[in-house]
């Protein structure tokens, strides 16, 4: 399929946030709203599968070697090496797959990836930053998950502080202090963008 930037009908909705802000919950809610006509962009990764993850549903699982080949061949819209040989990225074919379905693409993606997509498609992208009410609240939420030890949590909290500094670079900021409110706000923002 030829990649045609100008006459493609699809839009790109980016949700980025520090871990524990609730962006995944918001994205799942939006995907259930038929009037928004959204499809989830599945990321590619070179990390191992965790738990019940399914290839082609949760992620496209690639070997580090295959991932690097795709980088060489310019097959990614955005990608990064989180740490050595641990890659995450968005394949161009994934966006094309969704646009071919006549749908808009929604991303649940980290801050730097989100901003890279916005830079590539400035007109077609709505980039939304989900902010936790406070760093303290974020820490409480991460602890409640009981998925990580104290060190890991402290790492995430430190990373969150850096990520919060990028919030002004996004088109919109949603403060998730009340989930129902945040969901309504997200729905309104996305609805007006895809139907504009």
Q: Would you kindly provide a written description of the structure presented here, covering whatever features stand out?
A:
Helix content is 40%, strand content 21%. Helix 5 runs antiparallel to helix 6. The radius of gyration is 17 Å and the shape is globular. The protein is built from seven helices and nine strands; from the N terminus they run E-H-E-E-E-H-E-E-H-E-H-E-H-H-E-H. It is an alpha/beta fold and 196 residues long. The protein starts with 11 loop residues before the first strand and ends with a helix. Strands 2-7-1-8-9 form a five-stranded parallel β-sheet, with helices on both faces. A four-stranded mixed β-sheet has the order 4-3-6-5. The longest helix is centred in the last third of the chain and has 16 residues, at 179-194. Strand 5 and strand 6 (86-91) form a beta hairpin. The protein has helices spanning 23-31, 64-72, 92-100, 111-120, 135-145, 150-164, 179-194, and strands at 12-16, 38-40, 44-45, 60-61, 76-83, 86-91, 104-108, 125-131, 172-175. Residues 1-6 have low confidence and may be disordered. The chain has a single domain, classed as Rossmann fold (3-Layer(aba) Sandwich), CATH 3.40.50.300.
